[in-house]
Structure formats: structure tokens, C-alpha cells
Amino acid sequence: MRPQSEIEADVKKVLNEIPEIIGITHIYCHYLNQQLSVQVNIMLDTEMRISDAQKIASAARMKIEQIKDIDDADLHLELDDAPEMVQ
Known about the structure:
The chain is of the alpha+beta class. The protein contains two helices and three strands.
């Protein structure tokens, strides 16, 4: 397995290609039975319809799951009013 910092960098790179994602607040990597699952908290426009947000999250999940070594991705919408962004 690659270092977590490399995986996080790849996730950020992929998500930065999606213009509707205005921020990433958390990236969690979980290993279970040699499988890597990634949980990512993203920020979208607060005025966006839920159905549109779901489509964006689904597209983002598919892109993340194409990254080498990642077996599963779970996207969460960040609802905090003033979250800290991942650098």
C-alpha cells in the first residue's frame, strides 16, 4: 500500500477537477482486510438542490474509486457553517 499522504493527495487532485465541489474538509482512510476505504467530507453550494448534490457526490465517488489502491469511497456533505478546509 502507498502512504496515506499520497492517497490523500490523489483524492484532492481528483476532487479539485469537479468545479461544483467548493471545499474538502476531511479525508479519512480506513484499512480492513487489506482493503482501503476512503471517507471524504465535501462542501457544495448551500443553495444546490439535493438531487444535484447527490449526482455530484456519485460522480466524485466513482472518480475516487478509480484511484490506485482505493477499493471503496464514501462521500459526506459537510454541513458545518465554518469548517476548516483540508490544505
